[in-house]
Amino acid sequence: MDETRRTLQCVYVDVSAGTGECNATLVATDGRRLCCCNSLSLPVDDEHGVMIPVTKFLLWNGLAEDVMLGVSKTKAGGRVCVRSGPWTYRLKAVDGQYPNWRQVVPVKDGMAHTLTFTDADAEAMAKILPALPGKEAVGLEGGDGGITLRGQDGGRQVRVPLTAGSAYAGSGCSVVVNRQYLLQALNAGFRNFMFADGHSPLLSDDGKGAKHVLMPLRVDGHAKPQPAAATDAAQAQTTANTATENTNPPEAIAPQPEQQQEKPMKQEQSAAPQPEQTALERLQAAYDTAKARVRDAQSALADVAAAIRDAVKEERKRSEEVAAVRAGLAKLQSIKV
After folding, report:
1. Total domain count for the chain?
2. Are residues 258 and 136 in the same domain?
3. Do 80 and 39 belong together in one domain?
4. How many other C-beta atoms are found inside a 10 Å radius of the C-beta of residue 49?
5. Is 212 found in the same domain as 189?
């Protein structure tokens, strides 16, 4: 396994710039997205930090909320100890040097667009996004202060506006991202996403010390290749030495947009015939029809229940009359002449 793949399968504990109570930053990336969280205090003296391999035990949801993490350095390498409730787990840290992840985190300055999702819309998107046409890609459109979700499969498009308070700030935008990555970011608590344009990485800050960086997709839905820290540290160093004119860190992982691939998308959108009724509209119509039929059925059942009650009353009254007649006959038969 090459050095880059080993580091991408680890969680990096960075203490190089930590100060105060929270001196450690946890960093994880898979080359398409990056998440960092500065919320730990660890007595790690090594300025290079430590790389913790991700194992099934650490991913186990049975661990308690309070987890103690310890790191030690020996001649044989770094060791990590995790304690949670009755469990004590020790493992060997990954040797090597983690890429410079800070250079791929965009700065907030110059962010022309901001998408802010409410908790209600985030919950609704968990059901909306899987139902939109297409596979991985989903479009986020911002305009007039609102956000619209767009799914596309060939010439078929479905747009769903978010109506539970989500807001957009900017002059209008359209960006395509991986829908599963977006859902996972929302589930992790990230609500605001800032970016410079439709081809730049999306930055989210939860306000509690955690940041999330998500790379957009090309129009065809495949992830753009990434140099720099998210993919290969050596390649990033070579690029930095040769391309001296480009010194903006965020652009290191955001390749220039491919205009030839974007234009056919626009032409297809303009030439694609608009369907008379989308799948969501048909679903809404079917729901309204079913609702009306259920209402009619409930009314009919109420009538049946009323008729049953009347029949029971009549049967009880008839039984009482028959019993009274029988009692009278019995008295007459008992009279002796």
Report:
1. 3
2. yes
3. yes
4. 23
5. yes
Closest CA to 25 of 10, 45, 6, 42: 42
**Backbone phi and psi for residue 76, each to the nearest 5 degrees, phi listed first:** -80, -5
Q: Which residue has the higher pLDDT, 32 or 244?
A: 32
Phi and psi angles of residue 140, each rounded to the nearest 5 degrees, phi first: -115, 115
Report, as an integer, the average pLDDT of 24-37: 90
Burial class of residue 29, CB neighbours in 10 A (0-12, 13-18, 19+): buried
Spatial neighbors of 138 by CB under 8 A, at least 6 apart, are 129, 132, 149, 150, 151, 176, 177, 178, 179, 182
The pLDDT tens digits of the residues spanning 74-117 come to 766 778 888 888 888 999 888 888 888 888 899 988 899 999 99
Calpha distance 151→147 (Å, rounded) = 13
Give me the pLDDT at residue 86, please.
Answer: 85
Comparison of pLDDT for 73 and 13, the residue scoring more: 13
Note whether 65 and 173 are same-domain residues: no
Pairing label, strands 10-14, 50-53 = antiparallel
**For the segment 246-289, what is each residue's pLDDT rounded down to a tens digit?**
434 444 444 444 444 444 444 444 444 445 666 666 666 776 78
Q: Which domain holds residue 195?
A: 107-234+251-275
Mean pLDDT of the chain: 78
Residue 178: CATH number of its domain: 3.10.150.10
Per the DSSP assignment, residues forming a β-bridge with 109 are none
| 171, part of any domain | yes
- Looking at the fold, whether 269 and 284 belong to one and the same domain comes out as no
| CA–CA separation, 167 and 255 (whole Å) | 28
* Residue where a domain terminates, one of 43, 72, 98: 98
pLDDT at 121: 97
